[in-house]
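Protocol step 4 of 5: obtain the predicted structure for the target chain.
Materials: sequence only (see below). No template structures provided, no constraints applied. The aim of this step is simply to have a reference model before the mutagenesis design in step 5. Sequence pasted as it appears in the construct record:
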Amino acid sequence: MSLQNKAGSLFLVIGLATLAFWILGLLPLTVVPAGTVGVADTFGTVNDAELRAGMHPKLPWTHVEVMTVKTQEFSNTVATLTSEGLPVELDITVLYRLTPGAASNVYQEVGSNYPDVIVRPQIRSVIRDVVATFSSKSLYSAEKTVVATDVDRILAPILESRGIILESVLLRDVRLPEDLTAAFEDKLVAEQRIQKKEFEVETQRMEAERVRVEAEGIRDAQKIIDESLTPEYLQWKAIEMMQNRDGATYYIPIGENGLPMVKTIGE
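Step 4 output (structure tokens):
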């Protein structure tokens, strides 16, 4: 290759590089913060490939919508009705986040305000449906985790189908009308008193049963002893005791009246 051709190729490379730097210099840059993704919208056409956190060049007429993929919180007091139609208020907190890779679909179908359009209405709807299956008494006495578990079980697939991950449902408090709460408390105290009395009666019954069984055992043992104390056995036992025991004094009943005879062995 001649020197002239080499020089021409070099100038071409330099020219293309200069043009590239000039074009890039004219293109605006957009920054996608950490914990978010960018959705590129060009004249209503949404790019399915989301922009990850960092700096990206874009066309001047392209809008980049930044959407968070961090955990978001929804805390609210939801007023609803029990299965009897009685009013109840629930203080609830729901943690959720956008599914990675679903931001472009959510943006196209709902928009960036999806928490107000999808998440919060669905939370309220599911809570009302779940609470409607509980009576006021069960809500007062049951553990809060039961209600929270039911809400989680129903709400999770609904949000998942819209590109949102449900992380947890926390039920902080359940408030019934004051008069109803007072009635439940009075009834609970009464039930506790009854249970205490039943326990005391059962304890007394068991103690009486123990004494009866113990008395029967003593009676049966005494009966066995009485049946075994025959005159022949007593005679044999007396002879056995007097054998080879020098210096011992015995009082032995003899005769029909059982008058004692004193016998000292070894005298």
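Step 4 remarks: The beta strands are 29-32, 36-42, 45-46, 54-57, 62-68, 72-81, 87-98, 164-175, 249-254, 259-264. The CA atoms of residues 84 and 165 lie 33 Å apart.
Proceed to step 5.
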